[in-house]
Amino acid sequence: MKKVYFASPLFSEMERRYNAHIVSGLRGNYPSLDIYVPQEQLEINDKQAYADSKMIANFDTEALIASDLVIAILDGSTIDAGVASEIGVAYAKGIPVIGVYTDTRQLGGDNLKKVEALREIGENQFHYVNLYTIGLVKLNGIVVASEEELVSEIGERLKK
User: Fold this and answer.
1) Domain spans of the chain?
2) How far apart are CA 135 and CA 80, in angstroms?
3) Confidence of residue 158 (pLDDT cuts 50, 70, 90)
4) What angle do helix axes 81-93 and 53-65 make, rounded to 10 degrees?
5) Rg for the chain (alpha carbons), in Å?
6) How many helices (H) and strands (E) does the chain have?
C-alpha cells in the first residue's frame, strides 16, 4: 500500500471541507492508498486541546518522511507556511510531490491585454506563487491545475 501525505491549510471551515472533499474523492478512486491527512490527527490538531510546536512537528514529520508521495495544496493568497515547510522536507527526503494549484487567475496567458497589463504598476492580472517553493515541487514532482489532473497523475504514478 502506497502512503500519501496530504499537505494543505487546515484552519478555516472552508479549508477543512475542501480537504475532506479532495481526500474523500481520492480514497474513492484509489482505496489502496493510505492517505495521511493532518486535520484528521486529533492528537495534535484538536484545536480545543493542547499540542506544542515540537509535538506537531514530530508527529507530522514522522508521517511525512514515511510517505511515498506528497500531495500539496498550493491555493490561497500565498502558499500556506506549513505546506511550504512540508514541501521542503519532502524535497530534502526525495519524496515526490504533486502540487495542486487551481487558482483561476493563472488562466489567460495568451490574452495579450492581460500580458501587456504587466507593464503597468498594480495591474498584474495573474496570481503570484513563491517560485522557490514551486521550484522544489517541480524538481521532484509536478504541479497540476485541477482535481481531475490530480486523480490522473496519481493513477500514472501508481502504474510505475
Assistant:
1) 3-159
2) 16
3) confident
4) 40
5) 17
6) 7, 5
Model pLDDT for residues 13-54, shown as the tens digit of each residue: 999 999 999 999 999 999 999 999 999 987 776 767 788 889
In degrees, to the nearest 5, what angle opens at C-alpha 47 toward C-alphas 45 and 53? 60
Residue 43: how many other CB atoms lie within 10 Å: 10
Rounded to the nearest 5°, which phi and psi values hold at 24? -60, -45
CA distance 109 to 30: 33
Check whether 113 has a pLDDT greater than 80. yes
What CATH class is the domain 3-159?
A: alpha beta
76, with CB counted inside 10 A (0-12, 13-18, 19+), is middle
Q: Are 73 and 83 in contact (CB under 8 A)?
A: yes
CA–CA dist 9, 73 (Å, integer): 8
Kindly report, residue by residue over 52-63, the tens digit of the pLDDT: 889 899 999 999
